[in-house]
Specification:
Elements: H1 12-26, E1 50-55, H2 67-76, E2 78-83, H3 90-100, E3 106-109, H4 116-121, H5 129-132, H6 138-145, E4 153-154, E5 157-158, E6 160-164, E7 172-176, H7 177-183, H8 191-203, H9 223-229, E8 238-241, E9 244-247, H10 252-266, H11 282-288, E10 294-297, H12 300-310, E11 316-318, E12 340-345, H13 353-363, H14 366-374, E13 383-385, E14 388-390, H15 394-400, E15 424-425, H16 435-440, E16 443-444, E17 446-447, H17 448-453, H18 459-463, H19 477-499, H20 505-535
Parallel strand pairs: 1-2, 1-3, 14-17
Antiparallel strand pairs: 3-12, 4-5, 6-12, 7-10, 7-11, 8-9, 13-14, 15-16
Length: about 525
Amino acid sequence: MRTSKRKVWLKLGLLIAMVFTVVACSGNDEGNTTGSNEPGTSSEGVGAPVELRIFRVAVTQDPTKDRVLLELQKRTNTKLEFITTPWDQYVTKSNTMLASKEKVDVIALEDSQLNYPKLARSGILTPLDDLLNSGKYPNLKVIATDPLFKKYLIDGKIYGIPQLTQPSGGWIAGIRTDWLKNVGLPMPRTPEDLYNVFKAFKENDPDQNGLDDTLAMYVTPFDPWGFLMTAFVQPVAFKEENGSIVYTATSPEYKKALQFIKRLYDDGLINKDFITIKDKDISINQFIAGKTGIAYSPMWSKTLEATLQNSPQATIELLFPIPHDAASTNGATANDSQWNWMVNVMPSTSKNVEKSLEFLEYMTTDEARKLMSVGIEGIHYESYKDGVFYGIKAEEQNKDWDPANGEGPTGHPLWWGMINTINGTIDYQGNTGNLMKALQETTTFVSEEDKKSNPYYEQRKLITTVMAHEAVPVILESRSKYAGKLASVRDEYSAKIILGAQADFDKNWDEYVKRMYDSGATEVVAEATEWYINKK
């Protein structure tokens, strides 16, 4: 999703000459943008393209045909090969590549799925400190050394470049306010308010069609489940309480959240199949179809447009956040250590570490973000200014990708997951030492048409205004080791607790807590506590 950066250490005369050559040949201003990011320029004429093998999950684009990727390779003087796999094979593929020492230049590593500290300490990953201190990759250095990402320093050394994101990825809840009006309820602000909405949206005919055919939300194990949990539980792994570390997954608040969901289930206010659903889109689709009044969406303008086709009278407001306390002051859907998703690493088998860093550096630039999100100026759109794209040409985009499969007109399939998952530009150099501020002030991309009709396009920033504090913002080896087992226990007992008899709730909860600690939580909490004590 990023375009590569020019080798800025070339002699000045050569650089200037090449810039003018690119401007003259390109017919647009993509290679001549200005701003705090010092975007790269074309790498034509610098020698044969350098082959880079990049592993990223779920790649569908062909770098030999897709015009955006062809342009990216031209600008970066690279020949790209994507190694990819479906999501459900990601862990197996990653482990196989690393164990077999397959020659790959960059791996988008999901550290929650793989033991990042162990990989670094075992020599499988290339240390990057010396290269990042060379001055050649200023934006990458800002990312890797910012206090926001201290958790990725292994024994004080840098082994990866975090892929930036805004917490929760832009997903936020929305509610049918016309339904609220029909059932005589205000916007819910507390968990008890939320229960009343679930009850009224199920029982009081909110769509006024005379049928018993609605629910408040179609609950699934994905985002809707998280929405209900965060009505009670801060979205953190650990919190500090009276000078001690509390493991959230076994906390009293977590118990209250499960009790709330069980209450909804027992009272018939949520769908009975919520535990077994595999379709991640069903909750949004039920909302669009007019069957539910609350949904979690990554792009509300798109969801609103589709909803209005079925329910022209619908009105929607963002439902954020549901607080956890009676004073209505303690709501959050993300925490302050969630500003990245994956991390880009260069295995020791990489033959082109410096070129890989050059490529990734270019991908941080404004020029690259525009290319990888919307395409080539003059082909896929007419012009750009201050986050707004004018004259987007869907028919041209559709020749390279389907605009419907992504974030509308500003969503090429590879816009996410190579340097960040933010559909916009970031001022790194203007916020050195305060990357969080830069991320909160991201210039979010939007089309001219969407900006006129979309009241929600700044929603990603909204999520970042209320953050929970993660008391242990580090990558713990014990969490990496036991993550899979602990997740399985949580899934198993979530079903057992909610589907079981109310009389067995406390017994099932106590059994769950014991299983968690027997399955690795003891070691996880011990390591977290040790880190917290030493930090203090």
